[in-house]
Amino acid sequence: MKLQAVIFDLGGTLYREGSRAQRTATINRMAEALAVSPVEFGELWNAGYNEQLHGGLVTCADYVRGICRQLAAQVTSNQVALAADIFSDSIKQLLRVPRDDAVHVLTSLKTNGRKIGLVSNAASYLADNWELSPLARFFDVATFSCSVGLRKPDPQIYLLTIKKLSVQPEECLYVADGKYQELSGASELGMSVVQIRAPGETDNDVERQSWNGPRVSSLKGILSFLG
Predict the structure, then answer these.
(1) What is the pTM assigned to this prediction?
(2) CATH of 5-17+98-225 given 3.40.50.2300, 3.40.50.1000, 3.40.350.10, 2.60.40.10
(3) Contact, 172 vs 7, CB < 8 A?
(4) Is the confidence at residue 56, as pLDDT, over 70?
């Protein structure tokens, strides 16, 4: 069956993965703005992050404020706003700089009549800024876990996107780096699956599933699977 659509993951796929050092630096700056322990703040931030992916439709400021309550920290609204802005700015900066070949690949897919979808496990403060991405204009459907209350590898988050694209799973190619068991989740639905593993991006390897299927080192590599 001819592949009619390509569905992408976001972080680590269309964008280079953020390093642990970068994430730690951002959290430390937020903690400094709040005058709280960066270690304690970071632990609580990370502990609650998965909840934000699964329908946690709160603002970044709300999330920061909630952590401060857990720390029994007395903070002002200005401190909370500053910490939230630090994180939001890091997200906006990320979204403005996709992989070098992303625009070329998405343009090629559009030119050849392929439908394009996005399935991302993401918190609201990323989803709310998606339109800042130079890639957003290429997508027919963008599905974020926080908006639909579903997370990969739940089959329903893929099926929701596939239905909106008006295709069948067997007509889709799924491209991702492999976090959240997302590759096997897509494969079990009958989608063709390709893992992207860019050289040097190893910080999040512990979170990636083992994958023996097709693999590419750049986004351009997926074009060879489409004929």
Answers:
(1) 0.92
(2) 3.40.50.1000
(3) yes
(4) no
